[in-house]
Amino acid sequence: MKKINLFRIIFVLILITIAAFAILNPKKVETNLLRAFFANGAQDEVLVNLSGKYSSSINVLFESENLELLEKTKEDFEQKISPESFKIENFDYRNTLDFYKKHKSVLLSDTDYKLIKSGDYEKVSQKALNNLYDPFGFAILPVEEDPFMLLTDFLTGIGGTAGAQTSLKGKYYEILKLKADDNLALSPSLMNKEVKKLVELQKYYTNRELNVYLTGAPVHAYYASESSMNEINLICIISTIFVGLLVFFYFRSLKILMPVLTGLAAGMGTGYCVTSLLFDSIHILTFVFSTTLIGICVDYSLHYLMESDIKKIIKSLTVSMLSTVCALLMLAISGIEILKQMAVFTSAGLITVYFIVVLFYELLPPQKSRHIFNFKFSKIILAAVFLVIAAGLYKISFSDDIRDMYRPSKDMIYAERLYSQVANRDFDTSFIVVEGENLEKILEKEEETAKRLSSNNFSYYSLSKFIPSQSRQSANQALIKNLYDNKISAFSDYLTAAEINKLKVFEHPFTAEEGLQNISAAKDFLIDKNHSIMIVYDFQSPEILKEISNIRCINLPLDISKRIKEVRLVCLWILAPIFLGLYIILGCIFSFKNAHKIILPSVLASLFAIGAVSLSGDVNLFHVLAIFLITGFGLDYSVFRFNGSKNSNDAVFISCLTTVVSFSLLALTSFKLISSLGFVLAVGLLSSYILSIVLISKDSGEATESIN
C-alpha cells in the first residue's frame, strides 16, 4: 500500500471518530446574544438570566376611541392566544387579596410604618377618618376589620396597575402582557412561529376604528430574522449563480463544483464536531463567523484545480494554512468564550480542507483553465490607501452599544414609544440584584436597600413590597399593637367592644414560601433561589448603596455595552501579537527580508477597512473581529502572490471576486450587525488583494511590480 493511501485512511478514520463522538454527545446551539460575551462566572450568569427574564415578554397594545370595541377586541384577542405558548400576566387580585386580608395584622406601608414608629398616631388616625368621611374614599376592608385602613394603604403602596385601562389624547388604551413559555423562549425558531401568529392576529384586528400594536424583544427578533432570512436567502442564490457562472466561464465545466462543495461540507462539519467536543454549547454567532470558511475553502480548491500538481503549491498552501490558523488561534487565548469557539471552529475546518486538498485532489482528472486575469495597478492606489487610513484613524470613534447594531422599522419605533407613554415606562430602568442564602435573607437585604432608596427619593418596585420579611412582619405587628393601644378610642363611635377586642387578635407572620405560593406577581422578582431583583427608576446614584453587601446595581444597556467594550479592547490588544507571530513564522519560512513584504498587504488592508468604516460612521466590535478574517484571507493572497505559480494568480482572483461579491451583498442587508460585517470584509478583502499585487513582485518578491 502506498504511503499516501495509508495517510488517507488515517485521515478518514480521524474524521469518522470525531463525528461519532460529536453525534453521541450532541450540544445545544446557544442563541442568546449576551451569552456570546457574558460567560465568565456567576455574576455574568445573573446578568444573562436577568436579560432573558425581560426579553421573553410581549406587550399587546390596543388603541381606539370606542371603549366598548376596545374591551371586546382585547377579550377576543386574549381567547385566541395559545396557553401552551404564552402566559397572560394578569395580577391575580382575588387570591392575593384573600391572602393579604388573612394576614392584615402583619402588613404596613412604608409611610404608616414611619408614622407609627415615630409615635405620630394622630396623623394615622386623622388620615383614616378623612378617608372614612370622604364620599369618594374607598377601603379594602370594612371599618370594623381595618379602622385605620392600614391594609388599604399597604396595597396602594405596592402599586402595579399594568394592563389597566388608560386614556391618552382622546383615545382609550389597554395593555395585554404576555410571557413566553420557558422552552419556547429558548428556541428562536419556535418563538418566531408563535410571534407570527400574533402578528397575523394584529393584522386581523387592526382597522379604521382600532389599532393593535406589538412590542417587546421577541417581536423585534421576529421582524429582524424574517427580513434577514429573506435577504440572506436571496444573497445565497445570487452568490451561487455568480460562482457557478464564473467557474463555468473559466473551466468550461461545472464538474469541479462537486469536489469544492465536498471539501467545504467536510470542513464545516469537522469544525462543528470539534467545537461541540470542546464546549458545552455552540453559540449561533460561531456559525455566522465561521461561514467565512467558504472563501478560503474555495481558494484552496481552486489553487489545486488550476495547477493539478500538488508539489507546485504545497509550500504556499501550507504556509497559507498555518498563518491563517495562527491568526485565528490567537483568539483562543483571549479568555472570551465566543472568540474561543470561533477560533476552534474555523481552524478545525480550515485544517480539514487543507488535508482534503493535499490527500485527495490528486485523484481528480486534470482541469483545463484559461489565463485571463492579468492586471496592473498604479501607485495612485497606495496614495489613496494611505489617505483613507490617515483620515479614518484621525476621525475614528467606537460604538459599543448593542442597540446600535439593530435598526428597527419606523412602525416598531412608534409602537415602542406609544407603549412607553401608555404604560408610564418612559424612564430609565435599573436593576439591583440582591443575593441571599435563602428567601428570608433576600427579603431582609431588600428592606435594608429600600431604606437607602426611600431616603434618597428613589422609587422602586421589589419582592419585599409584596412579601415583607418575617422580622419586618413582627415589627409591623408590634407597631400596629401600639397604634391600637393608643388610638383605637378615636373609633369608639364605629366599633363595639367585641370588635375592638377582635382587632387585637393577631396572626403569626407568614413565611416567604407561603407568600410566593399565594402572590403570583411576587415570583417575577426572583431570578433564582438565591437572587432577586429590585427595579429602580432613573437611578443615577449607585454610590448610596456601596456599603450594603451582596447587592449589585445593573443597568442592562450600560452593562452590556461595558462588556462589549472589554471584548473589543481584548481583540485590539491581541492584534499586535498576532501580526508579530505571523511575521516570525513567515520570516522562518521565507526569510525576514521578505516576511514584511508578505504581511504588509494584510496590515494595510486591515487599517484601510477600519479607516473606511470610520469615515462612514462608528467602529464596532464586529468590525474589529473582521480584521482577523481580513488577515487570514490577505495572507493567503500574499503568500500565493509571492510564492505561487502563474495559475495561482487566477485562483486567488476568482476566490477574491466570489468572496467580495458575497460580502458586498451582505453589506446591503437591513440587519446592521450583518451589514456592518459584510461591508468591512468586502472592503478589506478587496484592498488586501489589490495591495498584494501592488506591493509584491511576482517573480522575485521585491518591493513593487512594474507600474504603468
Strand proportion, as a percent range, falls in: 5-15%
Alpha carbon gyration radius:
33 Å
Q: What proportion of the residues is helical, as a percent range?
A: 55-70%
General form? elongated
Q: List the uncertain runs.
A: 160-165, 700-708
What's the overall average pLDDT, rounded? Answer: 80
Biggest β-sheet strands, sense, barrel: 5 strands, antiparallel
Q: Which structural class do you get from the secondary structure elements?
A: alpha+beta
The end-to-end distance, rounded to whole angstroms, is 54 Å
Q: What is the total tally of β strands?
A: 12
Number of helices: 27
Detail the topology: elements first, then pairings.
Blueprint: H1 3-24, E1 28-30, H2 42-53, E2 57-64, H3 67-79, E3 86-88, H4 93-102, H5 110-117, H6 121-133, H7 150-158, E4 166-168, E5 171-180, H8 182-185, H9 188-205, E6 210-215, H10 217-251, H11 257-278, E7 281-283, H12 284-290, H13 293-307, H14 310-329, H15 337-360, H16 380-395, H17 410-422, E8 429-435, H18 439-455, E9 460-461, H19 463-466, H20 470-487, H21 497-503, H22 512-518, E10 526-528, E11 531-537, E12 551-554, H23 556-590, H24 592-616, H25 621-643, H26 646-666, H27 672-695
Describe the fold and architecture:
- Helices cover 62% and strands 8% of the residues.
- It is α+β, with helices and mostly antiparallel strands and 708 residues long.
- The protein has a domain of 336 residues.
- Strands 2, 3, 4, 5 and 6 form a 5-stranded antiparallel sheet that branches.
- The longest helix has 35 residues.
- It is elongated, with a radius of gyration of 33 Å.
- The C terminus is likely disordered.
